[in-house]
Design a protein that fits this description.
By secondary structure, the chain is an alpha/beta fold. Helix content is 51%, strand content 20%. The longest helix has 66 residues, at 287-352.
């Protein structure tokens, strides 16, 4: 037999038989704690009261039989195995009992120490194997359930972009996932966050404890200096110098029994915080718990980093909007004042009709052109901001495409003349009607024609055409300029992009804004160009019908 002492129950109403069984156990040197019973009721009373490793059970008993004992034990979820003790000629009964739950049988007329020890060894080994199998089955079921919970927890964690909500949700999910008494998380200060964020989750038992703040301090203090997951028993926690001061302020019976912690990591692999758990309800944390918490921490780290990046982007957007508010108000208002003053000054100079003031009028005109240029730049910056934020508003109505083309050509005529170029009307399906915000579409034409004239050499031609393509009206602005290299074309509509970074003309927003306006109309914009063969930019607008 195993050197481990086993707990046996001998059930037999015959005193002589019980003595024989006990003598056989002693002769076989079975190290056992033995209880005795002589009826169904007394046997069940022992089974209900004490953990028994094996029952040596006679079939014929006062108040019933051995089968009644087996069935009552199984109904009570008791797992002790039964060895049936049968009389001579009861072998068929014993076999039937084994089918009903008995583990083995020994005929009383063959009850020798060797036979009894052999049966006990066999039954106990079988019972231990079944116990381990059941533990493995329960562990597997628990792990499968935890994996399912982990998936659901991960989805819930990723639903929020608020750092405060994320760190608290991560803490709550970690405690629930591993059934811990305490969960505490810390996210270090980083980026726009100038203070660490913390989350604490307590079971009902711990929420009622007066030392809950101390418990949280234990968890944080222990993991601060670590960068890997850690799993500690109560003794290991007590021996850690980091916890000594906190533990000294709590009664010994309230000290943590076990700890599990995992680091939160940023995209660069650096530790950005941690999740810690204390006191799992069903015993110490095990290796599979550590793996599970590490997986949760990895997923939470991604969510937290995404939220942090989102917050930084939001902060940058707010800073940009604040700057644009200054530009649109604090800069445009003084420009309006200067423009009004320049207009009054020009009127005053013209009223004098003094030839000596011609130079002064030209200076005022130059000032006015500068004001107009700055005003256009301010409007471009505001439009670019609206497009980026998705707040560019257009009010489409039915417009004749041919009318829009002619208005655009008329507006560009003076600039073309100054450049020594011509703007002409190409093939035109003048009857097409489109859904368009007239002022915004004319702004698109102004940007496209202005850009084409800028790069078209003196004597060149810029033409505008219109035709129907499927359910859209396609406008085309073509020039006879030098063309655009293929490597530049993918960047043509990017914000602030200019082919020559040394150029000081414009902010590189014209084509970006033009595309934003077209897309706000649910249209598209494209470019066709080759070096030395000019450039054509197409944009489409939805037809009115």
């Amino acid at each position: 037999m195993s050197p481990r002492s086993v707990r046996l129950l001998v059930v037999d109403d015959d005193t002589v038989d019980r003595i024989a069984i006990l003598r056989a156990l002693r002769s076989g040197r079975v190290d056992a704690e033995i209880r005795e019973a002589d009826s169904v009721d007394s046997a069940l009373a022992v089974l209900y009261e004490q953990q028994i490793d094996c029952v040596l059970l006679d079939y014929y008993l006062p108040g019933g039989d051995g089968l009644a004992v087996i069935e009552a034990a199984r109904n009570a979820k008791l797992t002790a195995p039964f060895i049936m003790l049968t009389g001579q000629g009861d072998e068929s009964l014993a076999v039937d009992l084994m089918k009903r739950g008995a583990a083995d049988y020994v005929p009383k007329n063959l009850l020798t120490p060797e036979r009894l020890v052999q049966s006990l060894r066999h039954v106990l080994r079988l019972s231990e194997a079944e116990r381990r199998e059941e533990e493995a089955r329960r562990a597997l079921a628990r792990h499968a359930n935890q994996l399912a919970q982990l998936t659901e927890a991960t989805l819930r964690i990723h639903r929020s972009l608020s750092l405060n909500e994320l760190i608290q949700r991560t803490t709550d999910e970690a405690r629930a996932l591993l059934d811990a008494g305490v969960a505490a998380s810390r996210l270090a200060a980083r980026g726009v966050e100038q203070r660490p964020l913390t989350g604490v989750s307590l079971s009902e038992e711990y929420a009622a404890r007066e030392d809950r703040d101390g418990i949280r301090e234990v968890a944080f203090g222990l993991i601060e200096r670590r960068s890997t997951s850690v799993r500690l028993t109560g003794d290991e926690i007590a021996s850690d110098p980091t916890c000594a001061d906190v533990l000294s302020r709590s009664p010994a019976e309230l000290h943590p029994r076990s700890l599990l912690a995992a680091p939160l990591r940023g995209r660069d692999g650096q530790c950005i915080g941690s999740i810690q758990l204390l006191d799992r309800r069903d015993g110490p944390f095990v290796e599979s718990d550590e793996v599970l918490l590490t997986q949760l921490a990895q997923s939470a780290s991604v969510a937290l980093e995404n939220a942090r990046l989102y917050n930084e982007a939001q902060a940058a957007t707010r800073a940009r909007d604040d700057l644009l508010a200054i530009v649109s108000h604090d800069l445009r208002n003084p420009l309006n004042t200067i423009a009004i003053t320049a207009s009054l000054l020009r009127s005053d100079l013209l009223l004098r009709k003094d030839g000596d003031d011609d130079d002064a009028v030209q200076l005022v005109d130059r000032m006015d052109r500068g004001i107009q240029s700055m005003t256009r730049l301010i409007e471009d910056l505001l439009d670019a901001s609206r497009i980026e934020a998705g707040r560019l508003v257009v009010s489409p109505r039915v417009e004749r495409g041919g009318t829009l083309v002619r208005e655009a050509l008329d507006a560009a005529a003076s600039l073309a003349e100054a450049k020594g170029c011509r703007v002409t009307q190409g093939p035109l399906d003048a009857g097409l009607e489109v859904l368009a915000d007239r002022d915004r579409v004319l702004q698109v034409f102004s940007n496209l024609l202005g850009n084409a004239l800028k790069f078209t050499p003196r004597g060149g031609v810029v033409s505008v055409s219109l035709r129907r393509v499927a359910d859209s009206a396609r406008f085309s602005v073509a020039d006879t300029g030098p063309g655009i290299p293929p490597e530049h074309q993918p960047h043509l509509f990017d914000r602030y992009w200019k082919a020559s970074q040394e150029s000081r003309t414009g902010a590189g927003l014209g084509l970006y804004i033009a595309r934003g306006i077209v897309e706000a109309h649910h249209g598209t914009m494209a470019v066709e160009s080759a070096p030395g063969q000019g450039t054509t930019i197409h944009f489409s607008l939805p037809l009115a019908s």
